[in-house]
Amino acid sequence: MDIIKKSVGSEVITVDIQATKDLLTLGHRYLDVRTEEEFKKGHLENALNIPYMFTTPEGRVKNPKFLEQVMAILGKEDNLVVGCQSGVRSVYATTDLLDAEFKHVLNMGGGYIAWVGNGFTVKKSV
User: Fold this and answer.
1) Residue 95: exposed, middle, or buried by beta-carbon count in 10 A (0-12, 13-18, 19+)?
2) What is the CA 99 to chain-centroid distance, rounded?
3) Which alpha helices (H) appear in 60-126, and where do they start and end?
4) Which DSSP state fits 7?
5) Where is the signal peptide (predicted)?
6) How far is the CA of 114 from the CAs of 60, 85, 86, 87, in angstroms?
7) Is 60 exceeded by the pLDDT of residue 4?
8) Those residues with Cβ within 8 angstroms of residue 68's Cβ, 6 or more apart along the chain or in another chain
9) What is the pLDDT of residues 26-62, one digit of tens each?
């Protein structure tokens, strides 16, 4: 199975949702970087939610404690797939994680929208 590639430096490697599903089955962790509000509306099972951005009256702003919050829960050697709503924020989050020397981080292309669009299972918070 050639779905696992090593990330080199801060080069973001994007995998599609089927590869993501396969990787999660193999034990990768899913880091959902959407806002808490988005996450509560639906998310992948066993997803960790650490928002990369917050919604404020002025618009979205980057979570200044994103890396600190990730490092409190995950190790730099953990196998991670990072996702968001459509695949944009997750690219930035993946870049930040790679720059912070996380070794095995992949970006999920298409985000939650693509996951749902393919009929994959989601969980909703009550």
Assistant:
1) middle
2) 15
3) 66-73, 89-99, 111-117
4) -
5) none
6) 22, 9, 7, 9
7) no
8) none
9) 999 999 999 999 999 999 999 999 999 998 998 999 9
- Interior CA angle at 19 toward 51 and 100, to 5°? 40
Cα 108-9-68 angle, rounded to 5 deg: 70
- Residues noted as catalytic: 84
Q: How confident is the model at residue 5 (pLDDT cuts 50, 70, 90)?
A: very low
Report the amino acid identity of residue 21: K
Total residues belonging to the chain:
126
Which residues, in sequence order, are CB contacts of 119 under 8 Å at separation 6+? none
Exposure string of 31-56, with b = 16+ CB inside 10 Å and e = fewer, is bbbbbeebbeeebbeebbbbbbbeee
